[in-house]
Structures are given as structure tokens and as C-alpha cells.
Amino acid sequence: MASPSKDPVLPYAEFAARLGGPARLIGVDLGTKTIGLALSDLGRRIATPLETIKRVKFTPDAVRLVEIATKHEVGGLVFGLPVNMDGSEGPRVQSTRAFVRNLAPMIAIPVAYWDERLSTTAVTRTLLDADASRARRAELVDKMAAAFILQGFLDRLHAEERREDLRRL
Fold first, then answer.
1. Pairing of strands 34-40, 24-30
2. pLDDT score for 13
3. Which part of the chain is the YqgF/RNase H-like domain (predicted)?
4. What are the pLDDT digits (tens) for 39-75?
5. CA dihedral (12, 18, 24, 30) positive or negative
């Protein structure tokens, strides 16, 4: 287990190597009021919105996330990292990193970050295009943003696997 003072997030290649065989991943869109979750299939090809956790305090939020990860036999977590448009890290990034550091002693699976710039914007635009009501958008946006984050990560994972396969030829 990682110590709470050190960032327990693995570099991408190490995270991918630790996954091993078939296992689901959970994508996490950590907001100030809610936590959006998405779940991959066992083959790690498709991300599907799962649920939204209403934030209370760290411990109950983390316990709920661990319960969901355990229930779905998850092999890893992918947290959206809300970097600024210029690539700098602001208070939301610091908050996400702190949440992950505090979560690490509670869960024994690898954790990775994925740049989530514009994920909520893209999802909101999609919901507006679908003519979803304001209430429906509020209900869906967080878990759909988590799916957007996770799908980007899964796509990268498979692109790297294809590159590795080509190198072996």
C-alpha cells in the first residue's frame, strides 16, 4: 500500500502492466458535490455510465467507492484529472490528488489519472443536442463525464496494445 503522503498513482505503462488478465476498470469524475462513476466491460473496450455518488465527506465517499469497486471486481481506477486548459494544475487537481492519496490505503488496486479537460463540456453539449431537460442533464452529466474519461483511457490502452503487437511482428 502507498503511504498517504506520496501520490500512489502509477505511471501509465506500470498501471497497464499491473492489470493482467480480464478485469473491469472504474472511471471516476470527482466533483465537489458528486462523484460520477463509469464501468468498463471485462475486455476493457467500452465504458458505460454507472452511477453518481452524492458527496458527503471523504470517508463515506471513499467507503462507497470501495464498495462499488469490490462489487464489480474492479482491477483498477481511472481518475479524471481536471488540469487547466493551459496544462497547469489548480485547486481542483490538488483536491483530486489529495482524495486519491487518502483513498490509497483503503484499496489495493492500481490507480491512474487521465486528463479530463473538456469532458463535462463535451457531455453537456451531447445532452443539449439530445434535447435533454435541465433536470435530466443534471442527473446524467457526472456519470457520463466519467464514461468519457474512462473511454479515452481505454482507447489509449488499446492503441498501446496494438503498437506492442506490431513491434513483435
1. antiparallel
2. 77
3. 23-123
4. 999 999 999 999 999 999 999 999 999 999 999 999 9
5. negative
The DSSP result for 71-103, as a single string, is: HTTEEEEEEEE---TTS---HHHHHHHHHHHHH
Domains and CATH numbers, the chain: 12-168 (3.30.420.140)
CA-CA distance, 116 to 114, in Å (whole number)?
6
- Determine the Cα angle at 130 with ends 124 and 136, to 5°: 65
Bridge pairing between strands 47-54 and 74-81: unpaired
Q: Which residue has the cell 506520496?
A: 6
Are the C-beta atoms of residues 34 and 142 closer than 8 Å to each other? yes
> Taking the model in full, what pTM does it have?
0.83
